[in-house]
């Protein structure tokens, strides 16, 4: 039985922290690729960015539907599937007003789509007159440009501060300044610092340890090169030196750290209001595969002492960020080593986090004692699938109205995001990758695992059904 | 878009084979399982760090130095695209 204990949506405290008032309507803008924007031109690890999953990430804008309240607005690259909206409504969710781009480009971030849509920017300007503020997932120069064009105040710190705080170099220096424990390591802002760091890293390698080189502006858990042999360290150092010579600039943006054996990834969130007050929101276990985020587990399996340590870290970091001009949501990646050591700050995210978008559902769907697993499921398709078809395939796995367990789909747009444009040939043999995001609500860890496995099985059946020649 | 897994319709050149061998060594796979038509992201699960690792492996195996600033995302769309880039790069140097 669902227990509705409080209205869902953006907590009043968060709204006040962002806008200065508990009643300000917010316009959510899913600028999920903001870290790519921040990374542009930065001298991180020498590599090339793959286009890869951009179309999928750009459709993460749909997460805003389940965070925004009925009085808020969500800007979307495309209208949601009608069946998906009907499903959300059937669960008792009051949906926000949706503003959609007229002609979205899958490879373009939503902010660029909106900037190119004069009707939509006009509509946003009207909302500015009604006291609304723009709340992007993360703020770069693009979001500032959009806010300015529409006359919308930003419910965020300026882009230059967000970008600075999001750097892994900032994270390390902030941890140093606040006395928070972190893996041995150094920041490298130029070739000289990189050379010194590599000398130190060679000592770690000689002692049989593993080294990680982290791009200061690496995107969402990526941009981490794990090195186990000295030769590779020399190669990266040489590549950085060649690049610096070519650019005529010795600047570098890399963190060199000892790679610690990890037991658990953690993610915690705190909020800094405009007056600098810091509020600890939650901590979750982060599920990662190959260093890339896969989801969250709630509750996090931590001792009360460990949670207290994270709260203290949040207070210390929050004070420092506030002093540097940041306010709003802060997500921090932390980890527990196999030796039981807690490193409370590995990376600071000066933007919303995946877990931010789950909080709108917590009070309505996550009862005490339940296990909640927020996950992403890869799905390989030959043609687009409607939510109605997906719903049919998932069957009883899907959370139904009134039920206390099941899979709650919190983003469907990412399933078809990478589909080729235009009408699809039913006989086409080409495939595209999609991603289904869902939150598993269960009475126990065992039941959560069972729903997880069954969801994967049903999605594999969907793939197989599309591969059958007669379908 | 992927093919249905069939190899490209030309036999590997020496450079095709060399790049595939480096890639296979890095991924811990049988070189026979990799074709020039395969896509780095969709078929081989590559990300930008994987690109850097492969560039270093190729530098070691082929005895070249890469200027990653001359690389475009399109050069890493498929294994064949990367072979073409390496061939062009080798010809230029």
**Coarse structural class of chain B:** mainly alpha
| Overall helicity of chain B | 40-55%
* Rg on CA atoms of chain A, Å: 22 Å
Instruction: Give the end-to-end Cα distance of chain B, rounded to a whole number of Å.
Output: 33 Å
How much β-strand is present in the residues of chain B?
under 5%
Strand content of chain A: 15-25%
Counting DSSP H or I runs of 4 or more residues, the number of helices of chain A is 16
Largest interface: A-B, 29 and 29 residues
The major β-sheet of chain A equals: 8 strands, antiparallel
What are the low-pLDDT stretches of chain A, counting only 5+ consecutive residues below 50? 1-7
**Number of DSSP-assigned strands of chain A:** 16
Q: Supply Rg of chain B.
A: 12 Å
Please work out how many helical segments of chain B DSSP would assign.
3
End-to-end separation of chain A = 38 Å
Which regions of chain B are unreliable across 5 or more consecutive residues at pLDDT < 50? 1-12
Structurally, the number of domains of chain B stands at 1
Under CATH at level 1, the class of chain B stands as Mainly Alpha
Superfamily (CATH H level) name of chain B:
ACP-like
- CATH overall fold name of chain B: Non-ribosomal Peptide Synthetase Peptidyl Carrier Protein, Chain A
Helix percent of chain A reads 25-40%
The neighbouring-strand order within the major sheet of chain A is 13-12-9-10-11-14-16-15
Keywords:
heterodimer; A: 471 residues; alpha+beta; Dna Ligase, domain 1; D-amino Acid Aminotransferase, Chain A, domain 1; 4 domains; eight-stranded antiparallel sheet; four-stranded parallel sheet; 16 helices; 36% helix; 24% strand; globular; disordered N terminus; B: 93 residues; mainly alpha; Non-ribosomal Peptide Synthetase Peptidyl Carrier Protein, Chain A; 3 helices; 46% helix
């Amino acid at each position: 039985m669902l227990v509705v204990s409080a209205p869902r949506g953006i907590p009043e405290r968060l709204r006040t922290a962002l806008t200065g008032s508990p009643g300000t309507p917010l316009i959510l803008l899913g600028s999920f690729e903001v870290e790519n924007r921040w990374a542009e031109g930065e001298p991180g690890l020498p590599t090339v960015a793959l286009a890869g999953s951009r179309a999928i990430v750009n459709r993460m804008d749909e997460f805003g539907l389940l965070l925004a309240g009925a009085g808020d607005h969500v800007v979307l690259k495309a209208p949601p599937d009608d069946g998906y909206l009907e499903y959300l409504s059937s669960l008792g969710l009051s949906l926000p007003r949706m503003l959609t781009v007229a002609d979205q480009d899958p490879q373009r971030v939503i902010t660029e789509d909106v900037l190119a849509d004069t009707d939509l920017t006009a509509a946003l300007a009207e909302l500015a007159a009604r006291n609304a503020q723009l709340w992007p997932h993360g703020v770069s120069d693009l979001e500032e440009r959009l806010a300015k064009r529409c006359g919308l105040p930003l419910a965020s710190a300026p882009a230059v501060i967000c970008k600075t705080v999001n750097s892994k170099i900032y994270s390390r220096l902030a941890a140093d300044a606040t006395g928070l424990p972190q893996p041995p390591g150094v920041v490298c802002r130029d070739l000289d610092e990189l050379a010194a760091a590599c000398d130190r890293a060679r000592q770690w390698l000689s002692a049989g340890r593993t080294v990680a080189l982290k791009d200061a502006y690496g995107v969402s858990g990526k941009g981490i090169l794990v090195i186990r042999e000295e030769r590779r360290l020399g190669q990266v150092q040489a590549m950085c030196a060649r690049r610096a010579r070519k650019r005529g600039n010795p600047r570098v943006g890399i963190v060199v750290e000892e790679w610690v054996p990890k037991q658990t990834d953690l993610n915690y969130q705190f909020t800094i209001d405009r007056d600098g007050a810091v509020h600890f929101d939650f901590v979750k276990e982060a599920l990662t595969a190959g260093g890339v985020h896969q989801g969250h587990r709630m509750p996090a399996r931590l001792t009360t002492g460990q949670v207290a340590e994270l709260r203290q870290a949040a207070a210390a970091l929050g004070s420092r960020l506030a002093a540097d001009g940041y306010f709003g949501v802060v997500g921090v990646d932390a980890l527990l080593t196999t030796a039981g050591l807690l490193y409370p700050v590995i990376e600071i995210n000066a933007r919303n986090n995946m877990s931010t978008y789950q909080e709108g559902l917590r009070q309505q769907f996550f009862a005490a004692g339940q296990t909640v697993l927020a996950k992403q499921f890869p799905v390989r398709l030959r043609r687009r699938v409607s939510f109605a078809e997906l719903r049919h395939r998932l069957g009883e796995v899907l959370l139904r109205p009134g039920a206390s367990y099941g899979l709650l789909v919190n983003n469907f747009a990412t399933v078809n995001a990478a589909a080729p444009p235009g009408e699809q040939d039913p006989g086409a043999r080409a495939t595209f990758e999609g991603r289904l995001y869902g939150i598993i609500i269960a009475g126990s860890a065992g039941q959560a695992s069972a729903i997880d496995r069954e969801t994967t099985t049903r999605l594999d059946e969907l793939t197989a059904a599309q591969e059958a020649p007669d379908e | 878009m992927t093919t249905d897994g069939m190899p490209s319709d030309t036999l590997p050149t020496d450079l095709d084979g060399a790049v595939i061998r480096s890639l296979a060594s890095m991924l811990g796979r049988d070189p026979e399982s990799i074709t020039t038509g395969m896509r780095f992201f969709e078929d081989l699960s590559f990300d930008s760090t994987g690109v850097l690792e492969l560039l270093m492996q190729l530098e070691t195996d082929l005895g070249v130095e890469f200027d990653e600033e001359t690389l475009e995302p399109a050069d890493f769309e498929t294994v064949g695209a990367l072979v073409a880039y390496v061939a062009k790069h080798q010809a230029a140097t």
